[in-house]
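Morning!

This is the sequence you dropped in the shared folder:
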Amino acid sequence: MQALAGGGPQLKELVRYPLKSGVGERLEDAEVERRGLAGDRRWMVVDREGAFLTAREHAHLLLVRAVPGALGALTLVAEGRSPCVVQAPSAQQRPVSVSVWADNCAAFCLGDVAARWMSEHLGLECRVVYMPDTVERVPGGDVARSDDLVSFADGYPLLLAQRESLNQLNSQLAPKVPMTCFRPNLVVAGFEPFAELTWSRLRIGALEFEVAGPCVRCQLTTRDPKTGERRRDGEPLATLAKNHRSEDGVVFGINLIPRTLGRLRVGDPVEILVTHEE
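The structure's back. Tokens below.
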């Protein structure tokens, strides 16, 4: 039995990350689109060649709060700096080519003001780009379909984590780590620890999702999300590696592809429809 006794499994948190590697925004409700939560990871920082930059190597990205505006406008905020307000890119603007891992796609550059602000913040020359609705980046993996889409997220539209899994992990750690280290979009509760690694299909509220596999974790999880500082003990990866490792690496949480679209709300019930052997 995967579900725990009590009031029933629920969606406890909804989080979107407007800027890839930037600060997450807690929401009470959100629209689920083909790319994931509306406005999630539609903005990204790239170098001069258009290659994506993340907090894995540039920890100060974790300290940038991006506030989306209409049609691709954005406000960038960081402690100790004046906010940078950027207008939406023009539809007549020529797109630039950018890359996320092995994927190449088109994006709109937010212009010199945003580039200058972010370059000063990170200490290297870079640009901020936006993914318009016309761009069709398709996720990989065995369960993805040709009409599935993903934003600038690493691989899939949504990432789900479970509170009980974090609680079990934290029982072995000192100091404990917050859920924000793992940067999920959806946080659920009410199941046995790490039961999510056996799920194939689930329903949250009225929406159904297919599991694209466990999320392989990297050194970003060892950085304090509030300061960007890296833990010297290699946690939580070191502890996760003892019991939760796949062929591809250490795992925590699962990647999802939406199979029905609509609105999610914190408090929605969670039901597991199909499971598999871990």
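Headline: The chain has a mean pLDDT of 95.

More detail when I'm at my desk.
O.
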